[in-house]
Amino acid sequence: MVPGTALGVLAGDLAYTWLALKLMRRTGREDVTAMPFGIDTPTLVAMVFGVLGPVMLATGDPVLAWKVGMAATIAIGLVKLGLAFGGDWARRVVPRAALLGSIAAVSILLIAFLPMLKILRDPLVGLVALLLLLLALFGRVRMPFGLPGAFASVLAGTLIFWGRAWLDLGPGSAIAVGPLRLALPWPTLGWLDALPDTLPYLSIALPFALVTIIGGIDNTESAAAAGDEYRARDILLTEAAATVLAGCCGGVIQNTPYIGHPAYKAMGARAGYTLATGLVIGVGAAAGALSLLVAVLPEAAIAPILVFIGLEITAQGFLATPPRYGAAVALTFVPVAAAVVLIESGSLFSALGTSPAALQGDAALGYQALLVLGNGFILTAVLWGWALAAIIDHRLVLAGLVFVVASLATLFGVIHSPLPSGALFWPWAAPSPMSGRLAGAYGGLAALCWLAAMRARRISA
């Protein structure tokens, strides 16, 4: 699974490097930064707990579970190939406040907040590394020997971690280096045998195709706001093709452009860093060397980079949009906050040996509301931010249309799915009456917007 997944990362990084060099030649600028690229973490969690795990438990056949994962990944990639051609249209239609707001919300609440918890688990390592990074990148303080800020931060945190362990003054960890063995990813059609077993799991897997397409559009807009104008179609086609390639070679996780382009640009990254990333991940996975990197670099020393990325992207969300849209940007944070609470509460339930099904009364209702708010959070954030931006601009008919889209998406579980897995469903087979109520509420919001628009026309006449 790992070499095939890493091959998708390598292919995407090579393509993004080429796109950056092409943009560099076209504009004559030397400061062009390539889009970051990798695997999609939410899809990883969904595939493990929603596809691979259930197939393994149901059949006891790990090879079948692997084939189902491959088939689901290929299906995601094919859906993304179709959606990719609408990327540039979406960038023209959806306001920047909604696109950058949703990505800012993900940045501060998922990319910065969760790693901050890792920093506080080992504050000596994490806080020192974080301060050095903030001094270098925000304070413009020159690091010793002219080292890049991010490298100096990780190096200091790693030296503190292993130096403390060597002096027996704190926790360390064992470095278990497995045997280096070449495992080249190779295309296979073995997943065709698992197509009948894959169909029941597509309702779980396919929504993540839409999520990463929206994320890719958001990231393209973020790069444009930072000065690097890429075509959304090229960015999205790359992630789609890389996902299909990964699935055909044994991978079980889709690829996607990463949040963080302006942060990488601020750290001095240009076109070559994606090439280096792709080679390290692709070759390292094929040779089995990635486990050594994971063992040597402590989490608390790496986490500050993610915190910096979260801060930089969140700042961009507010600074790169007109001030009047500040409330629209802020509104996009709400569904993402629900997703963060879901992630952390899931860990707590697991540690306590229980599940949300054990909740009763108001607690159960509260958790259900949290679930529907958090599921489909990226699209929800975009729609909410878009609707409020339209209201701010007095485009009430457009705001009503956005609410109609939200209502239809709710009926199918694209947003606000009441299922723990976030799976899709048919409107006539909704798993909970809450879906119909939410869809009706969105319809009511649309009607209110249109009535307000009619009243405004009468007053102006």
Polypeptide structure, described:
The structure is a single chain. The protein is mainly α. It has 2 domains: 210 residues, no CATH class; 132 residues, no CATH class. Helix content is 71%, strand content 1%. It is built from 21 helices and 2 strands. A two-stranded antiparallel sheet has the order 1-2. Helix 17 crosses helix 18. It starts with a helix and ends with a helix.
Please name the defining characteristics of this protein.
461 residues; mainly alpha; two-stranded antiparallel ribbon; 2 strands; 71% helix; globular
What's the short story on this structure?
By secondary structure, the chain is mainly alpha-helical. The chain is built from 21 helices and two strands.
Structural class: mainly alpha
- Quick one: biggest sheet? 2 strands, antiparallel
Uncertain runs are: none
Order of helices and strands: HEHHHHHHHHHHEHHHHHHHHHH
Determine the number of helices (DSSP H or I, runs of at least 4 residues): 21
Q: Supply the number of structural domains.
A: 2
Major sheet strand order: 1-2
The total strand number stands at 2
Kindly report how far apart the N and C termini lie: 65 Å
Shape: globular
How much beta, percentage-wise? under 5%
Helix content percent band: over 70%
CA-atom Rg in angstroms: 23 Å
> Mean pLDDT score, rounded?
91
Give the topology, please.
Elements: H1 2-27, E1 37-39, H2 41-59, H3 62-83, H4 87-93, H5 96-121, H6 123-137, H7 149-166, H8 195-198, H9 202-205, H10 207-225, H11 232-248, E2 255-257, H12 261-266, H13 272-287, H14 290-296, H15 299-319, H16 326-331, H17 333-351, H18 361-374, H19 377-392, H20 396-411, H21 433-460
Antiparallel strand pairs: 1-2
Helix pairs in contact: 1-11, 1-13, 2-3, 3-10, 3-11, 4-10, 5-6, 5-10, 5-15, 5-17, 5-19, 6-7, 6-15, 7-15, 10-11, 17-18, 17-19, 19-20, 20-21
